[in-house]
Amino acid sequence: MREALFVKQNSNKWEIYEQMQVKHPDELAERFIEITDDLAFSKTFYPKSKTTAYLNGLAARLHQSLYINKKEQTSRFVTFWKLELPLIFYEYRKQLLYAFIFFITFVVIGAFSAAKDDTFVRLILGDAYVDMTNANIDKGDPFGVYKKMDPFMMFLMIAVNNIKVSCFAFLLGILCSVGTVVLLMYNGIMLGSFQYYFFSKGLGLASVMVIWVHGTLEIAAIILSGAAGLILGNSLLFPGTYTRLISFKRGGKDGVKIIIGLVPIFIAAALLESFVTRHTEMPTWLSGLILMGSLVFLIWYVIIYPRKILKNSALNGKY
């Protein structure tokens, strides 16, 4: 069957299913089964088409709606992190990828600029920070900045600041995504110049093993917050089959869920930075274990686990 004919035969049904106006869970389950059947057909005959991508997203939303409406013994709190948030990550995987690409591009720009201009690091990080770090390097304690403050007060300050940054990254998306990209640019260039500074001092590996103990979670959460901002902005720019208002409400709701879901990650990053990173003398294997553990968790929870949920649901065809 030609793709155009396949779309023509099913487009009305898909549009109705998009509205999610179903009261009975059994009807919702039937819709999900039908959509997964259409998705399987589309993946077989049009694997890289826009139709397949569209059906992927619709299947994710139906699955998410089904689990929200299903009567379960587990609390709503558990269901949110176990099912709802991972499925949002899957549905908006393109925005996650764009946020990652934007951020990494700006990190490279920051590092390249720092390498080409000796004054760039001071411009971005400030004279006070650079002078303090140079003094710490001369003392043989290049990461002494993490030891100066009381751990608990440091934790509170960092946690609040990180949550504030994530909220800004999301809310700035209302400026048609441009505001979010600017915030990602600012943080990406800062990270690139910051990391280059330590490499230029011969402390590249040491900085990775110390700073990224907490930085892995912190930077990943900033990127995910940027994705939430892109979701909000794109809901205005590209409403698709929805009215612009409905699309904006939907994008805003899903973006807020991502920000809420990131709060534990920001808190964990603040705890690590305040109570663990200060132990700069810790064995390399231990800091590497924390770093890699954080990275593996993020890859699993944001990328692998959501796909596993949908795959298992499609295979079982029941809930």
UniProtKB/TrEMBL annotation:
InterPro entries: SpoIIM-like (IPR002798). It comes from the Bacteria. The keyword Transmembrane helix applies. Keywords: Membrane, Transmembrane, Transmembrane helix. Pfam families: SpoIIM (PF01944). The chain crosses the membrane at residues 96-115, 152-184, 219-238, 258-276, 282-303. This is Uncharacterized membrane protein SpoIIM, required for sporulation. It comes from Olivibacter domesticus.
